[in-house]
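Weekend entry, working from home. Most of the wet-lab plans are on hold until the incubator is repaired, so I used the time to fold the two sequences that have been sitting in the queue since the last round of cloning. Logging both here for the record. First:
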Amino acid sequence: MILYEYPFNERIRTYLRLEQLFIRLANLISREQALDHHFAITTLFEIMDVGARADLKSDVLKDLDKQKHAMDAFRGNPAIAEGVLDEVIQQLDQCFQSLSGLSGKAGQSLTENDWLMSIRSRIGIPGGTCEFDLPAYYAWQHRPSSERTSDLVTWSKTLTPLADSIQLLLKLLRDSGAPQKVVASSGQFQQNLPQGRTFQLLRLALDPTLELVPEISGNRLMVSIRMMRQGEDHRLHPCQENASFEVALCS
């Protein structure tokens, strides 16, 4: 199944973008080629750009604290395993303490590294990191893979508290939604959302053999999904067939 996710607010949209970047960064660091490590540094700068939003850190801390209070409310519930509950609350506490212990915005300590900042100033220019532009960076790319990996791990550790916090918050959010099988009649599906409840994320699982692409839109009142299929002209065209898929609303 191909899983599509649609955020209902800007905060969750930012979390999903950061999650994608952190996953990419980890994959690139684990590789050995200099080109992979070049794109790892590029990804590091992308995370810093996304994390530069002034209220991001406070938003994450508020969400961690909110989730902890929500978990505390489950204590004494016979349907809840106390051991698992304690483990989740401990994870929330650890993330909160680690993130609150960081000063400034995400990756702010990296801005004090003049060598990295010299790369950052050139990396957005097409071909701007050639050896004649940044000879020190060119030399670094010729160092042993183990040395480059060690540097990348050191730099990325400054972002680990944010990465762990977002990963935990998104896991808890995703676990809050129960998937349901639905059908898009003639490629169209609409669902009214219950009043008095705020959803933050829609998850849609689609069989890849259908060769369909969902176009999702939504607000606090309704969600709409239109199934599309890519034609020979590489453009998306509305699907007129009935299509079944799974959808979960997460709050």
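Second, folded right after the first finished:
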Amino acid sequence: MNIIHSLAITSILTSTSALANINLTAKDGFTLKGQYFSAPSSSDSAVLMLHQCNYNQTMYKNIGKQLASNRIHALSIDFRGFGDSATTQYDVRTLSQLSTEQRRKAWQDMTAHWPSDVQIAYQFLKDKVGAQGKIGVIGASCGGSQAIELALNNQIAAIGFFSSAQNDKNIEKYTNSLSGKPTLIIAAEEDGRTYTSAQALFIEAKHSNSKFLAYKGKDHGYPLLDKDSNLTPAIVTWFSHQIN
């Protein structure tokens, strides 16, 4: 699939790895905001990081830095309507002011763009790693569904589900088409459907490098990164082994 996109680098911070705030132009002209953690130009591996729907791209800042330090390009984006990708037209913060029916329609209108928006982000990384490069994706909570759709339509080398509840339809998609890929699954035992669907995904996972990290309690997504200082390096190490 050939998708035309544009990129504007708005700022660069120099540390162990370079962090750039970037603009990606979606196919309808909408501007998506992201953070790109650059690896050496010779690197042919990358990870796309998709946030959960009660947070934004910044949840992956430390993971992105460590991936880049391990010679892996990393990109996190704000979904349309979230974080720095919110506009007067698309803004999740204003949905509560609408009636139930208006809220449902506004959510559907906004999220309908997400698969093509995520495709733009994937193409950005594909341009970095080249045709033979390897790209992994991790999706937290609602980002997991977008990770599945991306992996169904592109060459994804490894996939991660971070506190990401999946419905039966998505579990079936994973089972039929994605279960042979290395899969990292993270969930807390008291996190309801998130944990039971994580178990279902892991049962179907066929690759020997697939891994399930289970936590006590009910923390959902990014709070687990604060709770366990070993989780960030564990995620980075796992992806490094799959795509480096």
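Plan for Monday: verify the second prediction. The longest helix spans residues 114-129.
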